[in-house]
Amino acid sequence: MQPVDLLLTGGRVLNVFSGVVEALDVAIAGGRVVGFGEYAARERLDVSGRTLLPGFCEGHIHLESTMLAPAALARAVAERGTTTVVADPHEIANVAGLDGVRYLSQAAPADWLDLRLMAPSCVPATPFETAGAEIGPDEIAEMLTWPQVLGLGEMMNFPGVIGGDPQVLAKLQTAQGRPLDGHAPGVTGQDLMAYLAAGPESDHEAVTLAEGEEKLRLGMWLMVREGSASRNLEALAPLLRSGLRHRCLLVSDDLEPGDLLERGHLDHLLRRAVALGTAPLDAVRAVTINVAQRFGLARVGGIAPGYAADIVAVDGLERFAVSTVLRGGMVLKHDGLWRAGDAAPVSTSAAVRDSVRLTLPTAEQLAVRVSGDGPAWVRVIVAQEGLIVTEAAEAQLPVRDGCVQAAPSQDVLKLAVIERHGRNGNIGLGFVRGFGLREGALATTVAHDSHNLLLAGADDQSLATAAAAIKRLGGGQVVARGERVLAELPLPLAGLMSDLPAAEVVQRSRELQQAAAQLGCRLSRPFMTLSFLALPVIPHLKLTDGGLFDVDHFRFTSLTP
Amino acid sequence: MQPVDLLLTGGRVLNVFSGVVEALDVAIAGGRVVGFGEYAARERLDVSGRTLLPGFCEGHIHLESTMLAPAALARAVAERGTTTVVADPHEIANVAGLDGVRYLSQAAPADWLDLRLMAPSCVPATPFETAGAEIGPDEIAEMLTWPQVLGLGEMMNFPGVIGGDPQVLAKLQTAQGRPLDGHAPGVTGQDLMAYLAAGPESDHEAVTLAEGEEKLRLGMWLMVREGSASRNLEALAPLLRSGLRHRCLLVSDDLEPGDLLERGHLDHLLRRAVALGTAPLDAVRAVTINVAQRFGLARVGGIAPGYAADIVAVDGLERFAVSTVLRGGMVLKHDGLWRAGDAAPVSTSAAVRDSVRLTLPTAEQLAVRVSGDGPAWVRVIVAQEGLIVTEAAEAQLPVRDGCVQAAPSQDVLKLAVIERHGRNGNIGLGFVRGFGLREGALATTVAHDSHNLLLAGADDQSLATAAAAIKRLGGGQVVARGERVLAELPLPLAGLMSDLPAAEVVQRSRELQQAAAQLGCRLSRPFMTLSFLALPVIPHLKLTDGGLFDVDHFRFTSLTP
């Protein structure tokens, strides 16, 4: 018999099928596990004292939320034991359409990460905003022919599904027989059943035990989400101990770069799940074989002959400290040291590199004009710490030269959404309370879901400075005061992702946060809160490039009450 | 809200996800389950007192073994609760190649049965026989583009896989990422691991508990087989109670028409499994959701919103008496009565209808000539009751006019395999012991795996009569004596399947058996035993159209020792 390529010696293998942990040497050839036990091998790798797990599989994430370039992201998660990611490239698709999805599919080194995609189903997210692209059934059909695309990404338009919107149903129909991901926050009873009847098979929006259990009992795959924005593991952990545990996955959904680098990726979720009383075997299954099952990934998610040699060595089933990572039989990391070198440079498409096609607003365009010179009553969006839901309020604001002014003394900033895809130059203006900024402005091109330029500031000069900085950076996040830029994070990839190393992205994010705090900002994650102010599917009052939007009545509304 | 198409009222639904049985009305629209509970409905169907199960899914069967035409088969299994069948059309492929597979894929009414196929991987089964077709990687690639074809059928050539035969590996490579079915009887340890390393993911050949458990622990899907020829459920039943039960399926593999009509299909396997101590929930899962999981069948195998409305009503979880069957929301059977009418006639391809291209052998061609006139020693195949394995022996047979004669007094018949695909007219001659025939002959075109004409008889006249009858029938099974045909079953579809109603096929099979018994036959299923005498992959001595074959040394051998 030919010697195998590699023998992992001295480790204990967790068998996700039988649940048994057993001391076994693992033989690898041609990128796959080929056997257990004694084999002649060209190379041996000592993993004594370690427990070997299948490479972790992320079942639902928007990669763009990490703000890392695909290669940097691949390395960051691979170092933490993740070897397969199923991503929904919803954000980049809203900016750059199929070109953006194609870029993402090619930019992560396959040697490090088995990246699969779900075709984004909701681009644009609503008709009430200007996105950079539209994706209809034809575009979905095209993406489904790409080898990396597994199925249809989260169908967020649940009212459209339940109401039988033909365009929405056509998208689901296009992907019939392929995995269909759902998104049904708080949907229950007959509405939930009507949603499921149209095809979605999974959900990552359950926040209560009852909601999670109802979804599982109705046949859904339950993606227990524990990300940066939403953390539902504690509430849903009992399901990981139930008879329904084989249909549970642990997923991130959104993951900020700081959380990724400091807490971890799926290794962190394993620690959390076990700390919350989940049996280690069931926790591991929820990031390995269950994910493979849900998506029909062939021979992934277990350590067994014929399975991809995606293997993680950890110090034990409590700390899950990742010491060694193999992907396709290649040793990426061993004894804690990265051994796979740097990623090959990946060319980026013009659609991704030059996505910020922004005409800077004139002073007149940023003006909110009213008749008369007395203080004016306006509707105000109320941002809330840690929530993406806003409240609606009213405020009486000063007027100067016929223009309504921000009023930092009342904690009211001017808010602007400026179309930046080079399509129509729309500008939506409004006001927001809750940031606490005494002066200066924040700006970001990460602005769900259309990712236009979103600005919030105490004065028009600061807004203009921030906008100009964004244009110069080709997308990013900025804190400015008057004519000065105080902190900036360039995000030249679709205005969503950086090309800097992961650690620097985290560092710059921190600087942005500190600069905002020095201007008086009270929010713990001001850019995350800001990024959701333009999302017109989340209650209650939002601002798009089309204007102020009343989510409760699902229509535009006037700035003055 | 629109009224739904159909409401099933008064039943109790077994939820294969949660394991709970709950009284729930089931709403159906557009062929799918759309909800539970109160719905306005255009039609209501009372299933009071019944337990509703997902339609049963057969994970591995050679349909041809039932000898029923696809439409008759579809009705016979649908009446017994089977709504999905994954078939490996290995037999018809050996006769009629891709035309045969295409015929099978189209001939079963989709209204009655969701028929999926696995592309046959081993056509011809060996290079030591003449089949009607060859299927290589290109033909497999073509079949994989057909919507009904899920993956690659059982890779029986396990020595070729383990030995790294490039042609065999090329077939597996062609189907990478699709379900790959295995076949590894008695293969264990490093050989089994080497087999799995090349891709096969399932096995239906395990006969002992240890064998089944090893396969499951190595990540295989275990198809617990309980068919007509092989019955392994009793030995493997403990696995259906184990932590590995989620990866077990109950399958038929081969199923004779009498067994199908008298005992049942998967309903019979459910009864057997529960009688052997399997929890009803786990038994049901093994013929529903587990099958769907193994093959990645979307929204099949459960009763839940969005799932195909393939639903079976039974009287309880012990007898599993099927009273009502819905397929895609259509009521096929209710209160025990078939309501779906007759199948639309399906055109049959010439490749299937005219598959017996047989030149009748001359007397000279059937003669076994030796020099000298004294009795001659020859090698004799020893057929054994209930086994497909043969033994090898020798016998001293009388010689007349220079030709070795059968010797019924010693229980030795002449055996002939006549190539019948119109390719080369090969004739292989030999002798067989064990049938007990005192006179007459048996003939069949069901002769694994190349399905040439196989004859066994006490005298050449009877052999000639039987062969002529087969030619007249265009394929089938015959018992003859002298110049008379005593019983016959026409199998004009590829020489494998009948176009008669199921009950008549069973009746005629019985008549064949009775006629054989009247000629002295001691075997309980002489045609089954006969059909395996030409299969050169089963030990120890076999006969193909190329001659006598020594399986142990995997080479042809001489008739005289």
Kindly describe this structure.
- Two copies of one chain form a homodimer.
- By secondary structure, chain A is an alpha/beta fold.
- Helix content of chain A is 26%, strand content 26%.
- In chain A, the strands form seven sheets. Chain A has an eight-stranded mixed sheet.
- The relative contact order of chain A is 0.13.
- The interface between A and B is large, with 44 and 45 residues.
Please sum up the structure shown.
The structure is a homodimer of 561-residue chains. Chain A has 561 residues and is of the alpha/beta class.
| Gross geometry of chain A | globular
Question: How is the largest sheet of chain A built, in terms of strand order?
Answer: 21-20-25-24-27-26-28-29
Tally of strands of chain A: 32
Distance between the ends of chain A: 81 Å
Could you state the oligomeric state of the chains shown? homodimer
Percent of residues of chain A in beta strands? 25-35%
Q: Hey, which two chains have the biggest interface?
A: A-B, 44 and 45 residues
The SS-based structural class of chain A is: alpha/beta
Counted by DSSP, the helix tally of chain A is 17
Q: Overall pLDDT of chain A, averaged?
A: 96
Radius of gyration of chain A: 24 Å
Query: What helical percentage do the residues of chain A reach?
Result: 25-40%
Major β-sheet annotation of chain A: 8 strands, mixed
Can you tell me the residue ranges of chain A where pLDDT is under 50 for at least 5 consecutive residues?
none
